[in-house]
Amino acid sequence: MEHKPETTDREISMPVITSSVDKIASTMMEYLEAGRLVPGQRLIETELAAQFGVGRNAIREAMQRLAARGVVDLSRHRSAAIRKLDHAELHEVLDVAGAMTGLAASTAARHAHSSPFTGEMTSAVQLLKEAVECQDDELFSKARRQFYRALLLIGGNREIQRLFPAIGMHIIYSQFRSTRMQMIRLADYGLIHDAIYARDPVAAEAISRRHVENIRGEVGRIYKQFSAPSSTA
Predict the structure, then answer these.
(1) Least confident stretch, 72-76, 87-91, 188-192, 209-213
(2) Global pTM?
(3) CA dihedral 217, 221, 222, 228 (to 10 degrees)
């Protein structure tokens, strides 16, 4: 009988960096989550090649990988840019995120009793609290990645593990930053954690879907705030 190796956390959302292309793509994802790159920002090949100390071919391949994940928009006549969601795309991403996050959470709740990764989720929630207390956005992003990595590992569904990282929530969080958004995530992740530990797949799915709707509501508030015409004296 053929033995299939177990999936590890590094194989899901934090792949082993085996080349300069992997390192470039991984670093740019970290920059996006930390706010060092923003939606709509142009990415100049020559500047990136100098920054990373590589040739332009490596930069182009990294851009292709990021484009496949929905992070970068490529154009034949203009330089690549960090993807910026329009109003319709925003809601399309949230629709998919609601379904996928609910499925991932309910799957994790069904498998929590036998998973060795539940402790990683607990430590991620604690790290999220510390990040909010310290107002450390980079730590919050790191803890969020750990939370979802644990969620996917607990569930153990390889197809969800393959598809989940491509959902464009990282673009939404970068495009619509707010303190309220961070507090929503902190509160909802705690509730998702509790439902998974209670091994309640129905509650885990419902809370996860509600979390995405809470994000939709906050994004809508921010969108209206910045699209409303300015009042004049």
Answers:
(1) 72-76
(2) 0.81
(3) 150
